[in-house]
Amino acid sequence: DTEVTQTPKHLVMGMTNKKSLKCEQHMGHRAMYWYKQKAKKPPELMFVYSYEKLSINESVPSRFSPECPNSSLLNLHLHALQPEDSALYLCASSQSPSGSVSHTQYFGPGTRLTVL
Amino acid sequence: AQKVTQAQTEISVVEKEDVTLDCVYETRDTTYYLFWYKQPPSGELVFLIRRNSFDEQNEISGRYSWNFQKSTSSFNFTITASQVVDSAVYFCALLYNQGGKLIFGQGTELSVKP
Fold first, then answer.
1. CB-CB neighbors (< 8 A) of A104 in chain B
2. Does residue B66 contact residue B51 with C-beta atoms inside 8 Å?
3. Neighboring chain A residues of B55 at a CB cutoff of 8 Å
4. Per-residue pLDDT of chain A (116 residues; tens, 9 = 90+)
5. Distance from CA of B107 to the nearest CA of A (A)
6. Are the CB atoms for A96 and A103 separated by under 8 Å?
7. C-alpha angle with apex A77: B46 to A67, nearest 5 degrees?
8. Nearest CA in chain A to B40
9. Closest Cα to residue B68, out of B54, B48, B83?
10. Residue of A nearest to B10 (CA)
11. Are B33 and B53 a contacting pair, CB within 8 Å?
């Protein structure tokens, strides 16, 4: 089973709202990722968690705040977003971030975020 | 620097035609991994194949085949007898041994018409 789930599927929020995106995997993977994808563009890495610790932050603005409560869950807390933050947010997981055989990242279906 | 180039932005074919999607990569690393992902209109990125830098064997999976050539830094993907369900954006990606960062190409949008 290579399933990564994400909720909600769609989210519309105002610039003053606070919301959270949720990602879950039950494959025993120890690395989890957040990507942002604008229309007609490839995904761009935002954050990497390795063994529940933040290992990569790609200079993402502080209005995006990731959290990894346990090895199966990854959240992305959103606050004071701008309209240009509207995008598809993809979560992924893999067995380990580097240095071993399996590096395949499996992606969830994404959350389509619209900021008004 | 790590880079992936998919020169074909859009390709349109008629059902049952064969189609090849090109991917050229740049890396100074000797150990790296290459991937192809499919993204249908629903948005989910679906993993298709992984190749490591030490394995230049070509692979066939049903109607899909991949040609990895280190000499030309290419990892091309061929769909034989294309079907309408193959319509999607296809991404080639490079993973190098630096913490799990995937470098994606710009993607090729494939449209298969009946």
1. 35, 47, 50
2. yes
3. none
4. 569 999 999 999 999 899 999 999 989 999 999 999 999 999 999 999 999 999 889 999 999 999 999 999 999 999 999 999 999 999 999 987 665 555 789 999 999 999 99
5. 7
6. yes
7. 75
8. A109
9. B54
10. A40
11. yes
